[in-house]
Amino acid sequence: MKNKVFLEGMRDGLPIGLGYFAVSFSLGIVARNASLTPFQGFIASLLCVASAGEYALFTSIQQAASFFEIALITLIVNARYLLMSCALTQRFDSKTPFIHRLLLGFGVTDELFGITIARPGKINPVYSYGAFFTGIPLWCIGTSLGILAGNFLPIRVVSALSVALYGMFLAIIVPPAKKNLVIMISVLISFAASYACSVLPYIKTLSGGTRTIILTIVISSAVALIKPIPEVEESLTNDSLSEEKSK
After folding, report:
1. How much is the average pLDDT of 154-163?
2. Alpha-carbon torsion 23, 74, 221, 191, what sign?
3. What is the pLDDT of residues 200-246, one digit of tens each?
4. In this structure, how many other beta carbons lie within 10 angstroms of the beta carbon of residue 247?
């Protein structure tokens, strides 16, 4: 039974891993610009399985940020995974050992969380391990190969590939911004505030990592206070998900 569940996880994790490979290859170009070796890039991707988190990590290294800044910005950017892990804990069997909860929390990503939480009944850690087995190695290998390619490709090609990751982030924010006016306004304010911080006296002298930390905390907190998600809407969403699963 465990082998069957593990194979199901591998099957569902493979297409996610292939997508990870493409994204992490572009991320490897950024890591190469930060002077990381292929081995260092592999380890970084293994320990921080997150595109936005690693992008913040590599760009902070490139800007010679302090260890504290790097740790803090990575924590802030990856904070959503804390919420995902809390959601997963509600679906564990009460007898599930702590080590399994810890390992699943370590490997949580947006996509792997999605396929895990979508399965009916209690969460079986073996399924997630199968998905991790195919998804995470491809993520790490893609980063290493991106660094290798960056070392051999012409500078103009490397510069062009560096833009690919910005395209990925645009693909993430544009669809929800088109559907939700609050998200669109928040994104536009973020762009404007980021530019303002790069030209304003004193603030522009701060490191890029520090400015990112300040902007992330201030803008996200302001939006959460001004336009919080209504509890009724959350309740209806949860009820709808329960009905869909029961069907």
Report:
1. 64
2. negative
3. 887 777 766 677 777 777 887 887 788 776 654 444 445 444 554 55
4. 5
Whole-prediction pTM value? 0.66
Distance CA 195, CA 197 (A): 5
Distances (CA, A) of 119 to 3, 6, 247: 17, 13, 13
228: number of Cβ within 10 Å: 8
Q: How confident is the model at residue 55 (pLDDT cuts 50, 70, 90)?
A: confident
Dihedral Cα 193, 63, 174, 170, nearest 10 deg: 150
Backbone φ and ψ of 65, nearest 5°: -70, 160
3-state secondary structure of 81: helix
* Token duo for residue 211: 């400015």
If you count them, how many residues does the chain have?
247
User: Token pair of 112, please?
Assistant: 């792997």
How many Cβ atoms from other residues are within 10 Å of residue 117's Cβ? 15
C-alpha pair distances (Å), 39 with each of 18, 30, 31, 218: 20, 15, 11, 36
Instruction: Read off the pLDDT band of 171 (50, 70, 90).
Output: low
